[in-house]
Amino acid sequence: MTKTDKNTDNVQLSDIGSSSPPKTTTAKLQVQRNTRKYIIICVIAVIVIITVVAITVAVLLTKRKTKPIIPIVEVNGNTTWRQHGITVAGENKSGNELSKLNGPRGFDLDDDLTLYIADELNHRVVRWKVNASKGELIAGKDGKGNKANQLESPTDVVIDKQKHSLIICDAGNSRILKVNHHNLAQEPTAILNTSCFSIMIDNNGYIYISETFSGGIKRWKEGQSHPEVIAGGNGPGNDLYHHMFPMYFFVDHNNDSVYVSDAYNNRVMKWLKNATKGIVVVGGYNNTNNLIYQLNVTNGIVVDNSNNIYVADRENSRIMRFTEGSKVGQIVVSGKGVGSMVNQLKNPEDILFDRDGNLYVVDCGNHRVQKFFIDKKR
C-alpha cells in the first residue's frame, strides 16, 4: 500500500466515525436544495408561459385565416367604381342547376365575402363562396312548398351574426324562417308568420320587415307577439302617408330613421323616428323616363355615412346616387342601357357594399350577381 493510499484510508475512517456533519456543510446543502427548487420552479413557469403564448397565437392565426380582417373603406359622394363588373354568382341565363340562378332577389354578404342569395324562382336560398363556380343549397332542399325544408318564392335573406343563423323571408308562404347555416342537417324553423318582402336585422336582434301590400315597414324581436309599424302601414297610396309596393328599405341607426324604396311611386321616402308621415328625398316625378332626376321602379337601397342615397333604378337598369338634398342623381354603374354585357344590367334588384367599398348588384334579369370594384384612383 502506498503512502497516498494510507492517508486516504485515515480520512475516510475519521469521517465515518464522526456523529454529525459540520454546520457549514449542512447550510451549504440547504442552499443547494433551495437553489435547485427555485430553478425547477422557474423552468416550469417558463414552460407554462411559452405554452400559453403558443396556444394563443395558434388561435389568433386560425381566426384570422377563417375570418380575414377587412378594412372599412368610406364610400362618399366622390366615390367611383369601375364600369366593367365581374360575375360572382350565377350566369347570364336562368336554370335550376347550382351553377345558375333564376330570378334572384335579395341577398347578404358575410365577412369572408360569402354570398347568401334568395333564388326566388328556384324556391331556394343558396350560398356562394368566393371564386366558386357553383352555389351550395342552404334552404329549400325539398323544392317548392310550405313544409320545413321547403320554400315558396323567397325574396330576401339576412345573416344574424350573433346567433350564427340566416333569417329568410319566405314570401310565398307568408312566414319568416331561421336556419343554422353552419349545420345544414338542421331543418329551418318558422319564427314569425307574416307577409314580407325584404328584411334587415340590427345589433339588438330586432328584425325589420317590409310588407308590400300594407305598405309598411315593421320591426319585431323574438318574444314579441306582433311586429310594430315604424313607417307607413296605411295601405297603398301616393301621398306622404302611404307607399305603393315598398320592397326594399334601409335603416339608419345613427339617427333612427328609415329610408323606404317606394317602388311604384318611383321615389325614396325618409321616415324619422315616430313620424306619422314620410318625406320625399328622391324621385317622385310622374314621368318615368330615364332622365337622371327620374326613376322607374325603385328597388334596392343603401345610404352611406354622408347620407348619400344609392338606389337600384329597376326599369332603367342602372344604379343611381343622390347626394343629400339633391333632386338630380348620378349614374353609378350601367348607364349603357339594358343588356348582359359587363357594363350593363337588366332589372337590378338588391345592392350592397362590402368593407372594401366594392359594389354588389343582384342583376335579376340576367340571373346573376355582379361585383363592381371601387376605383382606387379616386
Automatic annotation (TrEMBL):
The chain crosses the membrane at residues 38-61. Residues 9-27 have a biased composition (Polar residues). InterPro entries: 6-blade_b-propeller_TolB-like, NHL_repeat. It comes from the Eukaryota. The keyword DNA-binding does not apply. Residues 1-27 are annotated as: Disordered. NHL repeats lie at residues 294-325, 344-375. Keywords: Glycoprotein, Membrane, Repeat, Signal, Transmembrane, Transmembrane helix. Pfam families: NHL. CDD domains: NHL (cd05819). This is Uncharacterized protein. It comes from Adineta ricciae (Rotifer).
